[in-house]
Amino acid sequence: MRVYFETYGCTMNQGDTEIMRGIVAREHEVVNDPKKCDVAVINSCGVVQHTENKVIKRQRKLQEIGKKVLIAGCLPRINFSAVQNADGLLSPGSIDLIGEALESISRGNKFTSLMATRLEKTCMPRHRAGGMVAVVPISEGCLGRCSYCATKKARGGLKSFEPLGVVKDVKEALEKGYREIQLTAQDTAAYGADSGETLPDLLWRILEIEGEFRVRVGMMNPETAFPIFKNLMDCFSSEKLYTFLHLPVQSGDDSLLESMNRNYTVKDFAWMAKAFKKLGGTLSTDVIVGYPGEDEESFLMTYRLIEDIRPDILNIKRFSPRPGTKAAKLKDMPDRYKKERSRKLTKLHSIIGLEENKKFIGEDHMVLVTEKGKKGTMLSRTNSYKQVVINEGFLGEFKRVKIREATSTYLVA
Ligand code: SF4
Fold this sequence. Notes:
Layout: E1 2-7, H1 11-25, E2 29-31, E3 39-44, H2 49-64, E4 68-73, H3 75-78, H4 80-83, E5 88-90, H5 98-106, E6 111-113, E7 133-137, E8 139-140, H6 151-155, E9 159-160, H7 163-175, E10 180-184, H8 199-207, E11 214-217, H9 222-235, E12 244-246, H10 254-259, H11 266-277, E13 282-289, H12 296-309, E14 313-318, H13 335-358, E15 364-372, E16 378-382, E17 387-390, E18 398-402, E19 405-406, E20 411-412
Parallel strand pairs: 1-2, 1-3, 3-4, 4-5, 5-6, 7-10, 10-11, 12-13, 13-14, 17-20
Antiparallel strand pairs: 8-9, 15-16, 15-18, 16-17, 19-20
Helix pairs in contact: 8-9, 9-11, 12-13
The structure holds iron/sulfur cluster.
Iron/sulfur cluster is lined by residues 9-10, 12-13, 45-47, 73-74, 151, 154-155, 186.
């Protein structure tokens, strides 16, 4: 059987696709062209309405050209009715059943398995993407109950994977030649809360592995980051750990954070963000604009927080009500306010990004070459995870470069 994969959503979902591809590749052919497949697997995301629409449109298009379509990932658990016409449905907790699902679909039967999170996703077969970057999931699900988020419905409560299994996955990726390890989870800081381990414990196990490589830790909730923050800061003393922190604040207004059930204050976030910035690392944060109840005053608080914290990366999301969430029952606001607020923050952040990046001009940095860029260039990362475009270098090479130019989102050496 020839099987085609397409992935939407986050790094965790990419990791799930790699596992499904690994299982399928043992008995079937994985193809890159959807026209040549017998079954197309769409590993879906349902985080916002816009992505849901894209997934459904893609499903229809593939079915119109006569392909059987299996929808995996978060959307079937978030909005079952939107995808019930697919030939098969698999939840993130059922990806080990991909083989059975494909067999059943190829015989003309529908296959549905929508189990909640239960899998130990380490040491599973993996068919990784090429390049230098390997995604390694460390846990799935979360401890939170954020009012706007449908991911909990899709991925469930926290399941931390065995630390020895995670270490084994990292070692295996390094042996295969990958040089950047991206540790991923719905909330990396929650790691081990269900097993007695902590994220810093896990990081030290990984950072002690011999060899030259870099580790990037994925998104963490400020609520779970706060209690481990000091120990986490200590981990950045290892040059193997990119000085990178993805800490989504979501709003600069405490009353909105309370309505979102985020369980931290703007002050808690600002304290961690500022302490981290002192290390000279790349700080990434997310904000939601247009959350129900966000008036001009609330938005201004978020705007001022961004001016004060000066994150290097700012992910702006317009609020999108998701089925089954508490926030979906609140009064939504017209899209024009969300667009306007998103535009204002984008403009502010492009000014901050350029000012921050210009500080690097003239400095020497060690970079790891991770990807091919455009027009014969290569893309690399400094130890603080800044992206640097270089003219020469080969994938996996560590080299010293001098920064010549800066844009709001990357550096040029
Ligand atoms: S975990 Fe969230 S972002 Fe990732 S695929 Fe699922 S809904 Fe999308």
